[in-house]
Design goal:
Elements lengths: L4 E2 L7 E2 L5 H4 L4 E6 L5 E5 L4 E4 L5 E5 L10 E6 L5 E5 L2 E5 L5 E4 L3 H4 L2 E7 L2 E6 L3 E5 L6 E2 L7 E7 L2 E6 L2 E6 L2 E5 L5 E6 L6 E6 L2 E8 L2 E7 L9 E6 L2 E6 L3 E7 L6 E6 L10 E5 L2 E6 L2 E6 L4 E4 L1 H4 L12 E3 L5 E4 L4 E7 L4 E7 L3 H4 L8 E3 L4 E6 L2 E6 L10 E8 L3 E2 L6 E3 L6 E7 L8 E8 L13 E4 L5 E11 L2 E2 L4 E7 L7 H93 L5 H14 L3 H13 L3 H8 L5 H11 L4 H8 L3 H15 L7 H6 L2
Parallel strand pairs: 40-46
Antiparallel strand pairs: 1-2, 3-4, 4-5, 5-6, 7-8, 8-9, 10-37, 11-12, 12-13, 13-14, 15-16, 16-17, 17-18, 19-20, 20-21, 21-22, 23-24, 24-25, 25-26, 27-28, 28-29, 29-30, 31-32, 32-33, 33-34, 35-36, 36-37, 38-39, 38-41, 41-43, 42-44, 44-45, 44-46
Helix pairs in contact: 5-6, 5-7, 5-10, 10-11
Length: about 700
């Protein structure tokens, strides 16, 4: 049983009766701490952490159901950033009381993913994928409104009435009750008519429908005919013009008639593209369309979308996740990117938007892409829906703390820790170095990022990274200085941690090794010089050899040319002698023919002594050997070696046979040969026959062909 005592007066210690006495009487207290804000922190056995104000009022209770790892708290400690460290029976927890964020975690399975929220008439509402949940402001837990079980898309407060857009249709919410209005079918959103407070347009799964207030009661009136596309994003450009955006179909400009019964004209916007996670919202009488290529404002006068340079500058290709954009009741325009949550307010004096942001990334938002929710509770407090409940954020509670970064360990060879109490000198074999570092910042939604630089290896700081270590491999010998600094949110630590490290030169760069290198260098130069001298000498000899070979080749070519000229001369001589042979042969042939004719004519004349004497002289002349000797000499000059080859092959041939062979080699006919031999043609044929037999020629072998080709 917990009791409190006032010991401010040691002589008069009295029990302190506090408002929370009755509740605390059920708990067993184990630890206690006075907080810097004047409150008291209590650690209990089995009941978690309790915080009281100075008057003993219960401020908050945290237990395992609300996020602690264990309900038994053995010790408590408050750090210099006013956060509370909790020692548990099974570990340590950290209560981030200095954080502007408060994470609501209670009965996840029942609550589900939050798509919308609203506070109205003392009640807090959460629209989730399980239904609409409600609690009165002073209650701790939400309860489901039974009629709304299912997917809730939106909550809109219009003219004092709270409207709920649901997968099953539209509801009007009064305290903890829900009244369905209109037809069945999903409703996305509700929009009040700009000039008629009794008219509301609702964007549904199948187009746009009209709600009308009669006798202070909202009733379903009609569907606007001519447009059946799902209208999740719907805004009034003026009384008669609507802008509707659809991720897969694009952006439409719709003109409706005065009775709000049908679409008179519709046109698809060409100044912007359709796209996944695109959407539409209105802020300060300006309609914004957003998708991954930028944010655009609708220019009503020109009926086109114009790019907004300020908001679009926040979008980078790697930063655009859903680009969710929404406005609230407190005059803020919200825009979400991958790493940050941005909001804009209107600067009335300068007629421009003022941009602010805080670090709440997509991972910590834990929301459905394209369906993120930011809802206002009051001027500075907001609810951001997650898939497990919501995160409450207080815009006034953002504080910056200067963090201190330190180098925790230096590890070489993957396992050896180096002492950092003295100067560090490492052998060259330990040139793979791992640095581990940390900063005294523990905020869940503001992760610590680090930036490092290794002087002597890199001149610029690295990119920011959440990893608290960095490894450098294969560093050269020399002296390096490692620097590291931290950043929490946008606040960079004012100080940095540094450590100098020297990597000794390897043995092959020692003084002795350098002397050896110098001597070796000069020896190498000498060898290189001798090598090149020998190489030059060899090249000179090669040049001389090549020149000699070239000269010999030229001489050989000259000799070949001389032989060619001599052969041509010999050929000319042979041709000349052949001509002489032919001339001599023909001359002899004509002479003998002439003498034989004279002889024949004389024989026909009567015999006289003088005629007989003349015939004898002719016969003597026909039998002269001078002509043969002259022919033989000319033939040998023209066809050297013929008789030698002929005698070698046919040694039995006589001189007359050789003579006949010579005439046949000249391709003379028997008729032409007969006068040369002073015999008849028939006798020549007989000689040819006998010659064939001596040469042993076959019947099908011509003697002329045989002799000519010999």
């Amino acid at each position: 049983m917990a009791k409190f005592y006032d010991i401010s007066k040691p002589e008069n210690i009295t029990q302190w009766i506090i408002p929370a006495q009755k509740k605390l009487s059920e708990y067993t207290l184990y630890s206690f701490i006075e907080l810097s804000n004047g409150h008291f922190g209590l650690g209990t056995i089995a009941n978690g952490y309790i915080e009281l104000d100075r008057k003993g009022n219960l401020i908050q209770t945290l237990n395992q159901k609300r996020g602690l790892s264990n309900n038994t708290i053995l010790s408590l400690f408050e750090d210099n950033q006013k956060n509370i460290w909790v020692g548990l029976g099974n570990g340590v927890n950290y209560i981030n009381t200095a954080s502007p964020f408060y994470e609501y975690k209670e009965e996840w399975e029942a609550l589900g993913t939050v798509y919308s929220s609203k506070s109205h008439e003392g009640y807090d509402y959460l629209g989730t994928n399980h239904g609409l949940y409600v609690k009165q402001n002073f209650e701790n837990s939400y309860e489901l409104i039974p009629e709304t079980k299912g997917q809730v898309w939106s909550l809109d407060l219009i003219k004092g009435s709270l409207f709920c857009g649901h997968d099953n249709g539209s509801f009007i919410i009064t305290k903890k009750n829900a009244q369905k209005i209109g037809i069945d079918g999903g409703t996305w959103i509700f929009k009040e008519h700009p000039s008629n407070g009794n008219i509301i347009l609702q964007g549904t799964y199948n187009g746009i429908h009209v709600l009308e207030r009669e006798n202070n009661q909202w009733k379903y009136r009609n569907k606007i005919e001519g447009f059946d596309i799902s209208s999740r994003f719907l805004e009034f450009a003026n009384d008669s013009v609507l802008i509707v955006a659809h991720e897969y179909k694009g952006v439409y400009r719709l003109e409706i008639n005065d009775t709000l019964e049908k679409i008179q004209k519709q046109r698809k916007a060409i100044s912007v593209e359709k796209g996944i996670n695109a959407g539409l919202t209105a802020f300060d009488k300006v309609i914004y369309y957003y998708y991954k290529k930028g944010v655009y404002r609708f220019d009503e006068q020109r009926n086109v979308f114009v790019k907004d340079s300020l908001i679009s500058s926040l979008i980078k290709s790697e930063q655009y996740s859903t680009g969710k954009m929404t406005s609230d009741d407190e005059g803020r325009l919200w825009f979400l990117t991958k790493d940050k949550t941005h909001y804009f307010t209107k600067d009335i004096l300068r007629d421009k938007l003022i941009h602010k942001s805080f670090y709440l990334d997509q991972k910590n938002r834990k929301s459905i892409s394209g369906f993120e929710h930011i809802g206002s509770v009051n001027q500075d407090n907001y609810i951001i829906g997650t898939n497990e409940g919501y995160v409450a954020v207080n815009l006034k509670a953002f504080k910056t703390f200067d963090t201190k970064v330190k180098i925790d360990a230096i590890i070489v060879s993957d396992s050896v820790r180096v002492s950092m109490k003295k100067s560090i000198s490492l052998a060259y074999s330990n040139n793979n170095i791992l640095f581990e570092f940390s900063a005294n910042a523990y905020q869940k939604y503001y992760p610590v990022q680090y930036q490092y630089k290794l002087e002597g290896y890199q001149e610029t700081w690295s990119a920011w990274n959440e990893e608290a270590f960095i490894k450098f491999e294969n560093l050269d010998f020399g002296t390096y200085v490692f620097h590291v600094r931290s950043k929490v949110g946008e606040k960079i630590s004012e100080s940095k941690a540094s450590k100098s490290i020297t990597i000794l030169a390897p043995w092959y760069w020692s003084n002795s090794a350098n002397i050896i290198y110098i001597v070796s260098f000069f020896i190498f130069i000498a060898i290189l010089k001798a090598y090149y001298e020998q190489k030059n000498k060899k090249e000179q000899l090669d040049i001389i050899k090549k020149n000699n070979q070239k000269a010999a080749l030229i001489q050989l070519e000259n000799q070949k040319e001389l032989i060619r000229i001599r052969n041509e001369q010999l050929q000319q001589d042979v041709e000349s002698k052949s001509r002489e042979l032919v001339i001599a042969t023909m001359s002899t042939l004509r002479r003998n023919e002439f003498l034989n004719k004279i002889k024949k004519d004389l024989s026909e004349i009567e015999t006289e002594p003088r005629i007989d004497l003349l015939i004898k002289k002719i016969n003597k002349n026909l039998k002269r050997n001078d002509d043969w000797e002259y022919f033989e000499e000319a033939f040998n000059n023209a066809d050297k070696g013929f008789f030698k080859i002929l005698k070698t092959r046919h040694p039995k041939l006589t001189n007359n046979d050789l003579r006949l062979c010579a005439y046949l080699r000249l391709n003379l006919s028997s008729k032409e040969i007969a006068p040369l031999l002073n015999i008849s043609v028939q006798s020549v044929e007989i000689k040819r026959y006998r010659l064939r037999k001596k040469m042993n020629l076959s019947r099908d072998q011509r003697i002329v062909d045989y002799i000519i080709t010999m």
